[in-house]
Amino acid sequence: MSGPITSARRAARARMYTGLSWAHAKVRGDEFSRLMLTTGMRDPCPHYRRLREAGPLALSSSGVWAITGHRLCGQVLRDSRFGVRTVPYQRDAQGPLEYQQGAEEDFSVLGLDPPDHGRVRKLAAPAFRPKTMASYRPAIERVTYELLDRAADLGSFDLMAELAAPLPIRVIAELLGVPDEYSGPFRDYGAIVAKSIDGSPSAMNVPELGAATRALEELFAELLTRRAREPGNDILSQIAADHAADRISPREVLALCRILLIAGFETTVNLVGNGMLALLNDPEQWAALNARPELATAVTEETLRYDPPVQATIRYPRETVHLAGRRIGAAEPMYVLTGAAGRDATVFADPDRFDIRRPARADHLAFGAGPHYCLGAPLARLEGEVFFAAVPARLPRLVRDGPAVRRPMMALRGLARLPVRAG
Ligand code: HEM
C-alpha cells in the first residue's frame, strides 16, 4: 500500500465511502467542477442551483452526469440497473471474496454490488436493529454528558475538537467492543483512514494513509482473535463468529470492521458540527431548542436536509439507460448530489431556510436510499437526538466565539473549527 499514488488507487480510495473520484473534476469553469474548487466547497448551493436550471439531470461540460432533483436522486439510488462498480470483482468461485487486488480495493459493503453486497450487509445488520439501538442509549448519554461537562469547564473551546469529533469515535469504539488500552491507537489510525474517504487530494497523505490502514487492520485482526476466544456482547464478537462460520472472508472481515469504525468519524462528527453552526447562527432557532429540548430529533433531521455531512455519491449504469429524457451509456459516472436534493424547492418549501419546526418532513436522502441505505442511520440519529437535547441542558448560553473554518472537502461536508463560548 505504500507505493506511488496512481489514479486507480486514488479512485479506489475515493470510492470507499462516497464513490467519488477527483479524476472527474476536469474542466475549469464547468459548474460541476466548481463544486470541487474552494468556493464550491465553502458553499455548494449556488452551484447546485445553477446545475438544476438545466433540469434534474445535467450533463456537465466535463462529461459527467449530475443529478440534482430530489425525485431522480432517490430513483437512481433505488434502481437495480445502477451499481457502485464499473466492473464486477474477479473471482475464482462462489462464496466469500478473497483478497486479490490489494488493500485499497474496497471490499466494504459500500463498494460491493449484488450478490456479495447483500451477504456482507446482512452480517452487520443485527448491530443496528431497533432493539439493539435502544440498548446503546445509556452509553451514548454517558459519553455525551461527560464530554459536555468537560467542555463547560473550559469556558471557551473549539466545539469540533471538544465535542463533535470525540463523540462518535468514543461511541463506536464502545459498541464495537474496543478495549480501553486499544482506544488511543484505534482513534489515531482511524482518523487518518477516515480523512481519505472524501477522495480529495488535500485529504491524502498516501504513505501515512497506507501505514495507518495496515496498523488498523493489524489491531482489528488481533482483537478479532481475542473475541473469537472470549466473545463479548459487542459487534466485533458477532463478526468473529461469522468469520469462524465461513460466512465472510478475511478480507471482508477487515473491510467491514474498518467501515464500521470510520463511517461515523467523518459523518456524525459533521452532523453535530453543521447542526450546531446552523443553530448558533440563528438565535431564534437556538432559543426554540432551549425552550423545547424535545426538538432535538427535528434539529437532527433538519441538519441532515439543510447541511448534510454526505453531499454526494456515485452510481454507474450496468447497461444503457434512458432517464429524464437522456440516454446514458453503460458505466458512465452519475453523480447523485443528495446535498442538492435536500434543497429541491419542489419538495421542501423555502429550502434555503434552516427551520427546526418544518411541519411535514419528506425524506432528505442524507443517508442515501435503496440497497446501500446507511446501515448506521439509526445510530447517527440516536447520537444526534441525545446530543442536541443535552447541549441546552448543559450549555444553555452557548454562543459563537470566532469564525468557523470549513474543511476543504466536496463529497463530505464539515467544519475544521467552530470556536464557541459557554456564556
Ligand atoms: C450523520 C451520519 C451519517 C451519514 C450522513 C451517513 C451517510 C451515509 C450515506 C449517504 C450512505 C450511502 C452511500 C451510497 O449510497 O453510496 C451510507 C452508507 C453506509 N453507512 Fe452511513 N452515514 C452516517 C453515519 C454512519 C454510522 C455512524 C455508521 C456505522 C457505525 C455508518 C455506516 C454505514 C455503512 C456500513 C454504509 C454502507 C451501507 C451499504 O453499502 O449497504 N454510517 N451512509
TrEMBL record:
<dbReference type="GO" id="GO:0016705">
    <property type="term" value="F:oxidoreductase activity, acting on paired donors, with incorporation or reduction of molecular oxygen"/>
</dbReference>
<dbReference type="GO" id="GO:0004497">
    <property type="term" value="F:monooxygenase activity"/>
</dbReference>
<comment type="similarity">
    <text>Belongs to the cytochrome P450 family.</text>
</comment>
<protein>
    <recommendedName>
        <fullName>Cytochrome P450</fullName>
    </recommendedName>
</protein>
<dbReference type="Pfam" id="PF00067">
    <property type="entry name" value="p450"/>
</dbReference>
<keyword id="KW-0560">Oxidoreductase</keyword>
<dbReference type="InterPro" id="IPR036396">
    <property type="entry name" value="Cyt_P450_sf"/>
</dbReference>
<dbReference type="GO" id="GO:0005506">
    <property type="term" value="F:iron ion binding"/>
</dbReference>
<keyword id="KW-0349">Heme</keyword>
<keyword id="KW-0503">Monooxygenase</keyword>
<dbReference type="InterPro" id="IPR002397">
    <property type="entry name" value="Cyt_P450_B"/>
</dbReference>
<dbReference type="InterPro" id="IPR017972">
    <property type="entry name" value="Cyt_P450_CS"/>
</dbReference>
<dbReference type="InterPro" id="IPR001128">
    <property type="entry name" value="Cyt_P450"/>
</dbReference>
<keyword id="KW-0408">Iron</keyword>
<keyword id="KW-0479">Metal-binding</keyword>
<dbReference type="GO" id="GO:0020037">
    <property type="term" value="F:heme binding"/>
</dbReference>
